[in-house]
Amino acid sequence: MKCLALLCITLSLALTSFALNTADLVSDPEARAILNRKCIRLGTSEVLPVSFKTACAVLKNPDLVIAVQEEFARSISDNGTVDFPIIGNGENRYYYINEKGRRTDLVELYRKQTDDRAFDYIVWAGGKRTFGYYDVIIHLQVTDLGDLGIVYSVNVHAWPHSWLTRTSHRIGLTRSYFRSNMKLIAWVAREIATGLCEQEEIRAGLESSAK
Question: For residue 27, what is the enclosing H or E element?
Fold first, then answer.
């Protein structure tokens, strides 16, 4: 019965996350224009046994990008390093270069506790791949589930610039590309988020014991 209740809560909150209009939280006009297009839209949600307070503390970290890379090197990387370091490029702006020498630019659009039970983090990414130039807006939302933990949701809005690429979406080729990449991104994000939250709980516990 408890598992059934958990499933119902998860589905309900996942649908709430999808219903959230990302554009309502974004003030950047170029990002809003992307969101108003007929993007390829994908999403995933799951329950994590992490307190909402801890998750918010992690997401509010002013050095979040550094912390994420350090956790990637610690818990995911085979050799303890980051293959494609994210480099600061101005306020809330970053970039990285992949193994093929292709650059991806990143802009943090929104990072705030939206209300007493939700924290939203929205990032724009853009670059070029084999199918041409693209824009992607990634909306991560953490929702409080009380004693059960949090719902961790990731919604992706992808806009390939090429008309041919967007047309191929109709037969599943483009969607398949973004879906496979999203699975990887969601898994990496979950592992990093869990690791950072564990470290935050240890830090908070040590501070509490020292008082």
Answer: none
Q: How far apart are CA 107 and CA 98, in angstroms?
A: 17
Beta bridge partners of 115: 118
With CA atoms as reference, report the closest residue to 42 among 179, 208, 176, 150: 179
pLDDT tens digits along 45-92? 888 888 999 999 999 998 888 888 888 888 888 788 888 888 988 889
Query: Which tokens sit at 202?
Result: 């240890």
Asked if residue 60 lies in contact with residue 67, where contact means CB atoms within 8 angstroms, the answer is: no
Long-range contacts of 67-74 (CB under 8 A, 24+ apart): 67/196, 68/192, 68/196, 71/192, 71/195, 71/196, 71/199, 72/188, 72/192, 74/195
The sheet with strand 118-129 has its strands ordered as 40-48, 150-160, 132-144, 118-129, 103-115, 93-97, 87-88
**Token match 């990887």: residue?**
184
Q: In which residue are the tokens 């979950």 written?
A: 190
Which residues make Cβ contacts (< 8 Å) with residue 163, sequence separation at least 6? none
Q: pTM score, two decimals?
A: 0.82
For 47: left if phi > 0, alpha if psi spans -120 to 50, otherwise beta; the answer is beta
What residues have CB less than 8 Å from 10, skipping those under 6 apart? 45, 46, 47, 151
